Amino acid sequence: MFRLFKRDETGRIAAYHEVWVELKPRRIVEHWGMVGTRGDTDAHRIKLLRSLEKQVDDLLDPARALGFTEIEPGDHQTLIVEYLLSDVWQRDDVLKIREAEDALTEVLGWTGLGVCEGETVTDTAIELTCRVLDPELATARIAEQMAGTEFADYSRIYQE
Fold first, then answer.
1. Are 35 and 15 in contact (CB under 8 A)?
2. Per-residue pLDDT for 160 more than 90?
3. Residue 65: closest CA among 6, 138, 2
4. Rounded to an integer, what distance in angstroms lies between the CA atom of residue 147 and that of residue 140?
């Protein structure tokens, strides 16, 4: 995946533009928008007679011309989504933990906010670690998108 971001006049990261390759069904997916929104998506068929790298660059070059750039890892902050251990959340339920990670990555990725990087299991909780650009906005989007799902029962979301 190739991700570019654009800062507003205050220096805050405000927009994203990303591209990834899906070998099946042989396409390049382009996704862009304002950070915190689902944005827009377009799919481009991979041309077999052209370099894949060139095809990706052709999609990213217009965004680069508008001031989109890669960002430093330090631009992300750590956000923890905590689920208390219970009958519903058990430390050895690897499938449910992976599904929760995937759900968080779905919310954060499709809004340009970040990604869920994994879990830590403590004596009392399962803590899912997310790397996000804007913790307040990420918390709001997680709360909105997880409401009504099997992952809505987190005990808290906090910044580390």
1. yes
2. no
3. 6
4. 11
**3-state SS track over the chain:** CEEEEEECCCCCEEEEEEEEEECCCCEEEEEEEECCCCCEEEEEECCCCCCHHHHHHHHHHHHHHCCCECCCHHHCEEEEEEEECCCCCCCCCHHHHHHHHHHHHHHHHHCCCEEEEEEEECCCEEEEEEEECCHHHHHHHHHHHHCCCCCCCCCEEEEC
Closest CA to 75 of 156, 135, 148, 143: 135
Q: How many CB atoms lie within 10 A of CB 160?
A: 10
Please give the Cα distance from 145 to 36 (Å, whole number). 12
Mean pLDDT on 111-140: 96
Domains of the chain in start order, with CATH, are 2-65 (2.20.140), 73-159 (3.30.70.1510)
Q: What CA–CA distance (Å, rounded) separates 113 from 14?
A: 10
pLDDT of 11 reads 93
Please write the tens of the pLDDT for every residue from 40-60. 999 999 998 889 999 999 999
| pTM confidence score | 0.89
Sheet holding 114-121, edge to edge: 114-121, 125-132, 77-84, 156-159
